[in-house]
Amino acid sequence: MTATDISTGTRVGFQQGTFDFLLGSACGAPVASGDSVVGRAVRVFAHNLNNYGGTCHNELPAVMRPFADSATTPRPATRLLTMLHDLQSYEDARRPFVHLFDGGLSDNLGMRGVLQALEEAETLSMLGRPGPFENVRRIVVFVVNSRSSPQTDWDQSERPPGAIPLLIKATGVPIDHYSYESVETMRDVVARWQGMRRLRESAAFNATLDPAVKQLLSAPNIDLYVIDVSFAALEDDAERRYLNDLPTSFVLPPEAIDRLRAAARKIVRESPDFQRLLKDAGARIVERPSAGAAPNAH
């Protein structure tokens, strides 16, 4: 779960390590008064925190120290430098308060944290250092994007839409495009790691000839699977239109819930990356017995 620092536009992840560094909980200062930060973040649209970061003199975690010098950090981790600078800005005593807003402004799908972890792993591999995924063979990411695109009649009228619809569109369009870019960036990581592996395993490649080339081709020996679950993957036009027209609401009729679940099931099963995962893992889908079926029916 993420939020956005309204002063800087920084993505703020709701995880213990972030708050240890940002708000000083590691040195005994309270993260926030009252009930839990996470609980309140779920229930409200905006949240204000006391910033104790400048009083604790926190040090970077050991795993992040290789990325602290922009002169020596390899290319895959350059975006991590920006994140580190954002974190270090909370050490400024002139920022006693942090105002958080909806995480969709900086990371609507929650993918930036995943991308940063992968870039960190790739950079540590290039540096010849152990990373957090040393014993991991596969990483499967389900990207559940509930973005909907209800049809409008704006193009049928000479009059433009009102101020509220325009405001919603003005904020939604960049968020949607940023979400698309996040998914595509993840797919780029998949393609890059696969390409590096093919080169390393090629009979034409001799890793002992050029250490610099060997370093450039270093990447975690992990298979990545990005399973995009979104309405756009549905081939049934009528069903896609029905789901796109559903309102954003905490309460939906039972029929809508059933159709949403059925659509998600279909999208996941037909995903090329999910099919590749089943093949690579030697796995298969086992259907649940229907109500009243004999125990050994499947």
Secondary structure elements and pairings:
Layout: E1 2-5, E2 11-13, H1 16-22, H2 37-43, E3 47-50, H3 78-88, E4 97-102, H4 104-107, H5 112-126, E5 138-145, H6 163-201, H7 211-216, E6 223-230, H8 237-244, H9 254-270, H10 272-281
Parallel strand pairs: 5-6
Antiparallel strand pairs: 1-2, 1-4, 3-4
The structure class reads alpha+beta
Shape: globular
Strand arrangement, major sheet: 2-1-4-3
Cα Rg:
23 Å
Oligomer: single chain
What is the H/E string? Answer: EEHHEHEHHEHHEHHH
**Whole-number average pLDDT?**
77
| Largest beta-sheet characterization | 4 strands, antiparallel
* Strand content bin: 5-15%
The tally of beta strands, per DSSP, is 6
**Helix percent band:** 40-55%
Euclidean distance between termini CA atoms: 38 Å
Q: List low-pLDDT spans.
A: 29-35
The count of helical stretches stands at 10
How would you explain this protein's 3D organization?
- With 298 residues, the protein is an alpha+beta fold.
- The chain has a domain of 107 residues.
- The chain contains ten helices and six strands; from the N terminus they run E-E-H-H-E-H-E-H-H-E-H-H-E-H-H-H.
- The strands form two sheets. A four-stranded antiparallel beta sheet has the order 2-1-4-3. Strands 5-6 form a two-stranded parallel sheet.
- The longest helix is centred in the middle third of the chain and has 39 residues.
- The relative contact order is 0.10.
- About 2% of the residues have low confidence.
